[in-house]
Design brief:
The structure is a homodimer.
Chain A: H1 14-31, H2 39-46, H3 60-81, H4 87-104, H5 106-113, H6 124-142, H7 150-170, H8 180-198, H9 208-225
Helix pairs in contact in A: 1-2, 3-4, 3-5, 3-6, 4-5, 4-6, 4-7, 4-8, 6-7, 7-8
The structure holds a DNA duplex (30 and 30 nucleotides).
Chain lengths: ~230, ~230
Amino acid sequence: MTTRRVRARRGEGALLREEILRAAEELLAESGTEDALTVRAVALRAGVSTPSVYLHFADKEALVEAVCMRVWGELGRLFTENLGGDPFLALGKCARAYARFALDHPVQYRVLMMRPSAAPGVPPAAAEAFRHMVDAVSACVRTRVLEGDPEELALGLWSAVHGYVSLLIAQPAFPWPRDREALLDHVVRQAGFGAAMYSRLPRGLPPSTELAACLDDFGTRLAARGGGEHPSA
Amino acid sequence: MTTRRVRARRGEGALLREEILRAAEELLAESGTEDALTVRAVALRAGVSTPSVYLHFADKEALVEAVCMRVWGELGRLFTENLGGDPFLALGKCARAYARFALDHPVQYRVLMMRPSAAPGVPPAAAEAFRHMVDAVSACVRTRVLEGDPEELALGLWSAVHGYVSLLIAQPAFPWPRDREALLDHVVRQAGFGAAMYSRLPRGLPPSTELAACLDDFGTRLAARGGGEHPSA
DNA sequence: TCGTTAACTTGACGACGTCAACCTGAGGGG
DNA sequence: CCCCTCAGGTTGACGTCGTCAAGTTAACGA
């Protein structure tokens, strides 16, 4: 921890970069708040003097962004693990895994998603994770369960899941349901069906009461056909 | 601005509180970043010495929270303005107004929604705004276009809209569609129909291809009945 | 007029991000 | 073997931040 790090050998200065990143991640995870992510604290934990951090990161923002890239990497890995099988079910599994990760790592998620992003473009790790989202959606478009531009649909679904977890993380005082698994089910199904429905809606809508009848009708119709599959988006 | 404020008369010390809050709001709006919201900057703008801020706010967090209460107030007012008429359409109008406000005031929205909330409970202004959301949803439940617990449904719809605007604000680098109005339409309809559909879904789902057929069927059925109403959630 | 006290200021402390200048010791050439 | 070089660090400082204890000023009642 506080023990002074032994100086790296020639040509291995980049080793410190990894140790600094690891220290930063540990600080985030252990403290439970991003305020603990101080250049001084990171350096202390890495067993190195404060300005040494600047040998590998232009400024604090660059360090934080590097931490974020790791998190994007984990998210991307999460998606690849949950692909395969029925596309719509796979999409639901990805969404669930994403939400679970966010709720299990609220500080990391907050730093990743709720920080003013200074960088102008989408960094590679983020682009790759997003590409996986788009792929999962594209598979659904191929089976025609979703319709429209996969990128746009992916953004919509991402937004829906992100909305839930980010509000839950940032505004925990509101009357959220107790059962998180049920909540997850709710948001994933709601988002998935909203997306599936959207492109099929007519421009104008019948009044609320009549609309309710249509929806009931659809529900019973769907239940009649329903297989015994795992409930998912 | 920098001109020294004349000292308040006896018993009117609370006037400074208002001026400090106004200075803080102006700083947020004009600078475009929450980093400019410094106790020193606020005090300077209010024409007062820095520690004078602490006469009216326990710490910086309390000041920021007071600013947030103002924003909650504006959001609550926005909801009341958009109620009335067909409940489902009114809900859509509220959602649209909410999203527009967020996109028009990204800094305020970020401070309001993406900041680690230190306070344990829901503050009154936030509770009131949320009550308006729940009321709008309750009206939809009464016409049976939505089904379920209004609070839970409101949280779901709020999450959906929040997800879109907060991602758009925090991650602007992703390939968002150009047309913001169309995007708004998309998210509002997606969220609304997702919520309307959720409670009517059977536990198990048919495979993707068959599900697609069901959805198509519902779309045409709905279009056949559709009135010429304004397109909305 | 004067004392009281509400309303504010002065000056300082420690922690923060960041930088210019200095040090140090591992590894190659003689 | 020594000694020179420069990658791999450290020292100390600057300005800014939130915050506080102590001091100052002026509006009002007696």
